[in-house]
Amino acid sequence: MSDHRQEIIENFSQYRIGIDDVFAFKCRSCGKCCRNREDIMLNSRDIYNIATALGLTHKQAIEKYCEVYIGRDSRIPIVRLRPKGVNRACPLLAGDRCSVHSLKPTVCALFPLGRVIAAEAVPEELGMGTPHEIQYVLNPTDCGSIKRKQSVRAWLERFSIPIEDEFFIKWNKTVFSLITTIQKYEGKGSVTERSMEMLWSGIFMALYLDYDSSREFCPQFEANTTKILGIFEALGQFEF
Q1: Does the predicted TM-score (pTM) go above 0.85?
Q2: Least confident window among 16-25, 94-103, 172-181, 189-198
Q3: Phi and psi for 225 in degrees, rounded to 5?
């Protein structure tokens, strides 16, 4: 977890902003927020949108623009945009403009806002709301201007981001479940390296790879997550 994200979690009330609260920000299209970044994590819908915008398969989009690794704490596969060059620029940046602007990752469309969602295990004293409730934060930024004021609600509507984003909630529930299961399996002394590689491969395939950008996204996501969670539930009947 980056230091910035850890800071937000530990001091959540300082960054939290309500859906009808107003903030001041106007993008100057300088591309500054697209450089010196190594923390743009993608979910399966982000990859689907990138692949659709560029006429690629998920596999091609990931190979060309992303890197995949096993999370140090989560212990599941994570996909992030792979920065390039000495200024660590987003690989989708063309000059100072996003090459997939209309379908760019949600975390980029939200900027300077961010959103978080609490799992059942998150302590109530952090003030992050009830489990699986979307909360918004206003990130500190040194770009843009303060000439335009708008509410969080208006910002989301401007970029067609659902306030009650069912996919985002489902994505987080799935990820939380997989994290819990993987950590439990890895805690068993008898789990082999080969077994873990097979589990990681299955998760990666279901969450990120097994999609057809010519077909509607949501039904594919539902089918993939139902399948992988069902496999893990079945595996829970056996000891490694």
Answers
A1: yes
A2: 189-198
A3: -70, -35
